[in-house]
Design goal:
- The chain is of the alpha+beta class.
- The chain has one domain (11-153): Thiol Ester Dehydrase, Chain A (Roll), CATH 3.10.129.10.
- The protein contains three helices and six strands, in the order E-E-H-H-E-E-E-E-H.
- It has helices spanning 37-54, 59-64, 137-153; strands at residues 12-14, 17-23, 69-79, 88-98, 102-111, 114-126.
- Strands 1-2-4-5-6-3 form a six-stranded antiparallel sheet.
- Strand 4 and strand 5 form a beta hairpin.
- It is globular.
- The model has no long low-confidence stretch (mean pLDDT 93).
Length: 154
């Protein structure tokens, strides 16, 4: 019988923000024990994938059905202060914009109250041959509901 400890960690939504925690391991760092710059993109990717799961978006099912898949079309990252070996980080993801064929997500890599890095990622929804196409209508509805939580907070 599977133990609850056998399941992978999942983040979750706190109102309109998705929060995903991770620890910096040796493999994430350079020889000085500082997170290698490209690994922030990996951290953000894991958090975005987890955010979609938490929202009920079935990327795998959509891919296997031949409908389409998300691909990063644009990424902007600003590095503020280095994360280090052993740090506990939280990636906070917020939906900024939802369009017919894309979604823009703002992400902050936090160590406690300190901002380590922030990024803005645009993910385009593509057909399996790489052409932009409208993302499933129900996904747009889910994203709009999440964004409305943000507006209610303000």
């Amino acid at each position: 019988m599977a133990s609850p400890y056998d399941r992978p960690y999942r983040g979750g939504f706190v109102r309109a923000e998705h929060r995903f925690a991770l620890t910096v391991y040796f493999e994430d760092t350079d020889t000085a024990g500082i997170v290698y710059y490209a690994n922030y993109l990996k951290f953000m990717e894991r958090a975005r994938s987890d955010m979609l799961l938490a929202a009920g978006i079935d990327q795998r099912g959509t891919l296997e059905a031949g409908i389409g898949v998300y691909a990063v079309a644009e990424a902007h990252v600003r590095y503020v202060r280095p994360a280090k070996l052993g740090d506990d980080l939280v990636i906070v993801s917020t939906l900024e914009e939802v369009r017919a064929a894309s979604v823009r997500i703002q992400q902050r890599v936090m160590r406690g109250d300190e901002l380590c890095a922030e990024g803005r990622i645009t993910a385009a929804f593509l057909t399996l041959d790489g052409r932009p196409t409208r993302q499933p209508r129900e996904w747009v509805g889910v994203f709009e509901a999440i964004r409305n939580r943000k507006k209610e907070q303000e």
